[in-house]
Amino acid sequence: MADRFDLESLMRSVKAVIGDRPWSTAIGQLSTVVAEHAATADAAAAFELYYAHWRNMPGTDPRHPGFAGYLLQLVPLMRQSGPCCTLEQAQELAAAARTVRDPQWQAHITGVLALVVVHDTAATNADPELLEKAVEDLDAASGLLPATDGTTAATATAFRIGRAVARAEHARLRGGEGELDASIEELTAARRGLTDRPDDQAYLTCYIACLRAGRAYLGRDEEAVERYIREQEIALARLPRHHPGRDSAESWLATNRTLLRNLTFQRTDQSWPGPRPRLDAGRRPDPTDPYALVQTAVEMIAGAADDGDRAAMAEAIGLLHEALEQCEEGGEHWMRCAAQLATAHLFQSGLVRWEPKPLSHLSPAGREIIAHTDQAISLLRRVRRLAEGPAHPMWTHVGCLLANALRSRSMMMPQLRTAAAARLGKESREIGLAALSGLAWNVLLQSGTGHAMEAGSRAMEEMCLDVARWCVLDGELEDAVRALDSGRALTLHAAQVSATVPDMLRQLGQDGLAEEWRTAGTGPLDPEPGPFGGFEPMSVPRPTGPDVRLRRRVLKVLAASPYRDRLLRTPALAEIAGALRTLGADALVYLVPTGELVLPTRRSRTIPGAALIVGADGTLRSVALPDLRLDAPELTAYQAVGGAGSDPRRDAGPVTTPQGGVPPRGAEALDLLCGWAWKSVMAPLAAEFRGSGDSHGARRGRSRVPSVVLVPVGALGAVPWHAAWRAGGPGRRYALEDLQVSYAPSARTLCEVAGRTPPEAGASGSPALVIGDPTGDLRYAGEEAEAIHRVFYPNGTYLDADTADATEVSARLAGLRGGVLHLACHARVYPGERHSAYLDLAAGSRLAAEELIEGTVRRIAPGLVCLAACWSNVSSRGYDEAYSLATAFLTAGAHTVLGTLWPVPDEETSLLMYMTHHYLRCEALPPGQALRRAQLWMLDPQRRIPPEMPARLAVRARYIRPANLVGWAGFTHQGW
User: Fold this and answer.
1) Pairing of strands 609-615, 620-625
2) For tag attachment on the chain, is the N or C end more exposed, with fewer CB atoms within 10 Å?
3) Cα 330 to chain center, whole Å?
4) Could you tell me if 614 and 573 are in contact, meaning their C-beta atoms sit under 8 angstroms apart?
5) Residue 185, beta-bridge partner list
6) DSSP of 798-855, one letter per residue?
7) 221-262 pLDDT, tens digit each
8) Per-residue pLDDT at 168 exceeds 70
9) What is the mean pLDDT of residues 161-172?
10) Residues 792-837: pLDDT tens digits?
11) Is the Cβ–Cβ distance between 346 and 405 less than 8 Å?
């Protein structure tokens, strides 16, 4: 009879049963082999027997390390029969086994231990540092195993898959979207190598689709989530019932269906049809498995909240309480479980029917609401203390949730306790503002513009506006400005910080880390074959620049240094005022739309729109704008049209398209929009600044109109506020006649640009690069560029369809310090793509916004960039990211940028641009004033044609229609 403690013999028996098959197809047979060899009830019980036997061995017994190693290698198999082998036990076995000095043996031991770590950590949301170590160990172990036989090659493949899973789970816990995408690429490559193992290939397809669905959910891409769910359903149908990963795959599918329900509800405000998950005897999770308890509760919560099902919500709360009691307090799993339980309590408080009246807080319903809210607050306070700061991925979410709960609680206080309500309101503001600092951290952590955009574009809609509105309600306007700027242009902020990281690190004595950052980066990857034919979708941004792990190391160093404020803090009021004085502007104005403030308890309140005005003298005030609404008919009609342009134009298609119905023509919609813009915003704003034009920035003794820099929030960024009009006298009067209007992505960007050396754009002798019609299909653009070059910059460089390719333009840009760059060409905008906005140049080449801010094009410093191209100041990544070709040039180092909001007509643009350079060179006006004067010239029916204007342009100037906003109002000014 074989010795049941001869594990080497057991290992041979296991390998004989497996043969060339994947072990997952023989799991039942293998468990029987182990149990029979050990003479135990099942394979899990065999572990307890063997572990006890090993512990009783003398440490000097020569069999001690080998027995430990064989037992550890059997653990993944033994666990299929039931829970066994704690992480501590696995680590103990590995430590003993590693005393055998055989490289391949040690590789096996290191890899198997890492797989145990990945399984335990992924299942319990435990220490992410263990996952990071597992990634390194699996990488090293797979590299040490030669592919000389099928068994060793299969083990190496398992280690590589485990490494990719570890990276994915680490990214999930620590918020690295680039790291997650890299792991998806690794898993996709590994799946192609499993053609002889269809069951495991189907399982891996389920996991990859689950990861992609989660990414799509974060991007609010309902169609993509639905597509990945279908992919999971197809793969699950191919996965045998006996496969050890079947339960996990079904759980992932259920979770993603819940995500899809959430997106559908957000879009339609209607509950998902069909039955909701409820507890029953057949599907009740294992009460000893906290992860399963949480997963089941999460599936139930979304449906219960949508349906108003208090009983189902109570069941979910019960499951979460059971799970929390089994988690180690302070661990990652405890934190996530506690936050989920707090969320469920807040949902439950919102499901209680309650009408706020005097003393209604003493009613049974009132007491129940308060009890649930207080329990949520207590849990969230504990989780927030454990998160410690913005480096933790839960910091922002938990902080915002707690701030919302405190705000709700303050509104439940009886009228006699106004002081207590005020204290809770203040605490909610402070915690909300602190939570928003995590937005900048999350964007700085991402590898590449695409990931940063995804992280940043969600910020404003989720929390920043709510916190800002609380601050306005409480009369704390400076805090409101901080909240608004916390969610603005975060991708641009990350690019500005990234460009200076090496210098900051060298100042801190971290030369090696600085060089590592400088040399890091990867190119875009090719598309991968899909699981069932075709190609993988390319909408997921590809990692570029330093990866997440390097970024995390760098951020840790910088966050512990005096540079911390530069990373996370929004500019103070005094800094903004100083920047305004430097730029010669009177005020920075945030335009905040009217909105509903909805709290977790489902109480809501309408907050009127407002203009928050930061003066160059350091003052701060608010002007009520009750008609400033995102659902204003004029704004929604304009958005439905998709643009204001008409052919011929300098673009390759609109950013958006009409969504059904028969919208008004673009020019008509624009005209109505600008009429609304005057009534809703510019009339009260002009009244605020009437008579203040000489206070800051007048030059050479000239008086001037007041100068304001606008930061429009959300879809308000599509409006040409400077073209707002009112009827007056014989015709119209436009806002730019009363105000000098500029724009800024954020106060952060404004302060950064103001801190640069003053430019000399257009000064005599300054260099110039003029690019005209590089694609050869814009006649008037070519004429415009030639005239501007010949008349104003005869000593500058002129590039055309024969010379203006991307390589040449990039090289010329590097030497254009303080000079003028004028581009008359096509521009394209493709939201969500890797290169989301770019200029079409000669020979089919392109210059993309992402290349400008990621450093593919070297850091530049022109004084003025004129982008006479369509859509060049339209954000390709959501309004509040303000990410466009214009802002990319500004971030890359330009002092001033002129860009466009729609497809500008070729003829009128050529005249407007010529006159802008005329006022810049002939009257020495700053760029913003030069653009304004050129636009006023377009409006003047008695306009004087400069004698040096070429005849072909002069002829066209006689036929300008001043009332045609499309021809002149699309151009905007940013910067100096």
Assistant:
1) antiparallel
2) N
3) 28
4) yes
5) none
6) EE-TTT--HHHHHHHHHT-SSSEEEEES-EEE-TTSSS-EEEE-GGG-EEEHHHHHHT
7) 888 999 999 999 999 999 888 787 888 888 888 888 888 887
8) yes
9) 84
10) 999 999 999 999 999 999 888 887 888 899 999 998 887 766 677 8
11) yes
Tell me 6's DSSP state. Answer: -
Whether residue 543 is preceded by a cis peptide bond, meaning omega within 30 degrees of 0, is no
Cα 950 off chain centre by: 48
Kindly give, in sequence order, each residue whose CB lies less than 8 Å from that of residue 437, ignoring residues fewer than 6 positions away: 390, 396, 486, 568, 569
Report how far apart, in Å, the C-alpha atoms of 170 and of each of 164, 165, 182 are: 10, 8, 12
- Residue 278's nearest CA partner among 314, 320, 236, 325 is 314
- The residues pairing with 971 across neighbouring beta strands, listed in sequence order, are 900
Beta bridge partners of residue 726, listed in sequence order: 733
CA angle 73/75/78 to nearest 5° reads 130
| Cα–Cα distance measured from residue 738 to residue 729, given in angstroms and rounded to the nearest whole number | 15
pLDDT at position 408 is 87
Residue 76 buriedness (CB in 10 A; 0-12 / 13-18 / 19+): middle
- Nearest CA to 908 out of 879, 942, 937, 947 is that of 937
Q: Is the predicted pLDDT of residue 869 greater than 50, yes or no?
A: yes
CB atoms within 10 A of CB 793: 21
- Short-list 917, 907, 902, 650, CA closest to 773: 650
pLDDT, mean of residues 498-508: 88
Measured between alpha carbons, how far is 232 from 606 in angstroms, rounded to an integer?
42
Whether pLDDT at 652 is above 60: no
Measure the CA–CA gap between 927 and 975, rounded to whole angstroms. 9
966 contacts: CB under 8 Å, gap ≥ 6? 644, 645, 646, 666, 667, 670, 902, 904, 905, 908
Q: What is the pLDDT of residues 772-804, one digit of tens each?
A: 999 988 888 899 999 999 999 999 999 999 999
Q: Which two tokens stand for residue 528?
A: 């991968």
Residues 586/706, Cβ–Cβ less than 8 Å? yes
Strand partners, 972: 899
Closest Cα to residue 835, out of 450, 522, 446, 520? 450
The backbone region for 776, taken as left when phi is positive above 0, alpha when psi lies in -120 to 50, beta otherwise, is left
Is a pLDDT exceeding 60 seen at residue 402? yes
CA distance linking residue 117 with residue 101, whole number of Å: 23
- Which ranges of 327-363 does DSSP label H, i.e. alpha helix? 332-351
How buried is residue 142: exposed, middle or buried, by Cβ count under 10 Å (0-12/13-18/19+)?
buried
| 655 neighbors 874 (Cβ within 8 angstroms) | yes
C-beta separation of 469 from 504 below 8 A:
no
